[in-house]
């Protein structure tokens, strides 16, 4: 396992908070040169600590006013079912995240839709007719209390 030193952890914390922060700003904050920052960023990326850099878009500004979590129970649990669910997830843009689970549901999917009618259409016309899906249980988000992708890092 690759060890992270305190400067690596501080750098990752700053990058999680703002991926657009410049090497110059980071060098002032972390007490390192901009070139050292650049080399560390590249190493952290090469070592798999940084998977990718993305922009976070505003669902509201894009007209995606309904967020929901949809639990799926499948008819059976085999490779064919899993592949067909994976294909469904891959080809349905409203599904922004999906997980397999233990417990009552086999899958949970996070979805964004423009409105309740669009959510209903997704459930009625895409999910329920799918041959591998046995039961669908949706939960509409009323208020999001935290919207963050930052991971907890070791304390330095």
What keyword list fits this structure?
single chain, 156 residues, alpha+beta, four-stranded antiparallel beta sheet, elongated
Shape: elongated
* Assembly level: single chain
State the low-pLDDT regions, or none. Answer: none
Give the radius of gyration.
20 Å
Arithmetic mean of pLDDT: 95
Beginning-to-end CA distance, first to last residue:
18 Å
Number of E strands = 4
Helical percent range?
A: 25-40%
Q: How many DSSP helices? A: 5
Q: Structural class of the secondary elements?
A: alpha+beta
Give the topology string: H per helix, E per strand: HHHEHEEHE
Going across the biggest sheet, name each strand in turn. 2-3-1-4
Beta-strand residue fraction? 15-25%
* Largest pleated sheet: 4 strands, antiparallel
Structural notes for this entry:
It is built from 5 helices and 4 strands, in the order αααβαββαβ. The protein is an alpha+beta fold and 156 residues long. The longest helix is centred in the N-terminal third of the chain and has 13 residues, at 34-46. Strands 2-3-1-4 form a 4-stranded antiparallel β-sheet.
